[in-house]
Amino acid sequence: MTNNKRQRKKESVVHLAVIGMGTVGTGTVRVLEEHHREIESRLGCRLELKTLCSRSIRKHDLSWLRHPVEITHDWRRVVENPGVDIVVELVGDVKAARAIAQAAIREGKHFVTANKRLVAEHGMELVERARAAGVSLGIEACVAGGTPVIHAIREGLAGEHFDAVYGILNGTTNYILTEMERRGCGYQEALTEAQQKGYAEPDPTFDVEGFDARYKIAILAMVCFGQPVAVESIPVEGITRIETVDFAYAHRLDHTVRLIAGARRRPGDKVEIFVRPMMVSRSSQLAKAPGPVNCIMLVGSKGGSTVLTGRGAGGEPTGVAVLSDVVEIARAIVSGSSTSTPLGYANWHPVKVARAGQGETAAYLRLVVRDRPGILARVAAILARHRINIDSVLQEPAHSKHRLPFVLTLEPTREKHITLAVAEMARLPFMAMPPLLLPFAQLP
Hints:
This protein is of the alpha/beta class. The protein has 15 helices and 16 strands.
C-alpha cells in the first residue's frame, strides 16, 4: 500500500495479521476476540483479524474465533498480502523476527513486535527503515508485558529529563526471590514451583542468569536517554547464588534481595547500566512488587520518581500491550496521521558506558567458611589493605561449623576496591564457597 493510499484509508475496517501462535500470539488474539467491542469503540472503526500464521497452524483449535480467518504457515504470504494493514510478529526467534520486520516494512506494512531482543539489538535499524517507508512501528510489549512503561516515558513524561531508570523486569526471578523470602524455601524449590506454575521455562537460564532483564534495560536506556547501548556491554549477574540465609540477614538490615536492572546518567555524558541482585530497602516500591509482577522506577530531574507496577509476562497481559500498539496505529491509519517515534527520540547520540566499579557503594558481603580461630582477623586485614571499612558483622546462629555463614556490611567505597578484596578472600583456605557480594541499591 502506498503512503497516499494509506493516508486516504478512511473506510471502517483496519486489517490485522498475527504471525506466531505461541503463548503471546494466542493471548493477543484472545484479548482481541473477547474485547473487540471495547477496542472498536475506542478506535472508532472495525479492527478485523484477517490472517493467522504459524508453522504449526494446522494443529491449533481455532473454533473459538468469532469469524473465519485466513491461515498459513508461510509468513511471506502475510507480508505480501495487499489486504493486510498491520503485521504483528510474535515468533520469538530473533533471526526470523528480523527477517519478518524487514520484509513487512519493505512491503509498506505497519509493524508491531513483542521481541525484546529484536528491539534491543536492531531497534535503531528498524526505526530508520520504518521512517523511510512511512510506516509505524510498535514495541510496547517488549518491556514489562502489560505495564505501559514505554508509552509512559515516550508520551506521558516526554517533557522530563531522566536521571535514572531502575526496574524489576523479570517475573520469573521476582517470583523465585519473593517465594524464598515469604516461605523460607531454597532456590531450587522456588524454581521448581515457578516451572510448575508456568512462570519459568524448563531451561530457566535466560531468566535466572539475568539475560532477559539485560535486553529490557537496554531498551529502557534507549527510550529514557536517547542513547543506544550495545547489549553485550551490559554487565549481568543472576540470582542462582542467593540462599535463604541471605533473606534472614537482609531482614536484620531492614532490606531484601531483588534482581535489579538499572541505568543511570554519570558525568561526562556517560551511562552506567547493569543487571544484578542487590540489597533493596524494604520501604522501596521495588521491594514491594510480589511474585511475577514487574516494577519500574523512573527518576526524573523535575517530576521526581514515577513508579509503574503490573504483570510483566503471560499471554494475555502481553497481548494487551501488543493491542495498544495496534489500536494506536489503526487510529493513525483512519485519521491519515502518523504515530509517534517508537523509541522516543528522532535523533540519537552515541553513549559511553561508564566502567563498572567506578562509583562508591555500600555492600553486603556473605562469607561461608569452615570455622577456625582467626578468620575474622584475616578477612579484616584484607579489607584494610584495600582501604575498606567494616560497618557491621552479623552471624545467624545454629549453622554447621563446616559451612558457617556470616555477613560483613561494608561502608561506602569504590566497588572496584571491594571486587579486588573479594577476589583475594576467595583464595583463603577456610572458604567453603566463593563470597557473595551484593551492593546496597541507591534508590530515591
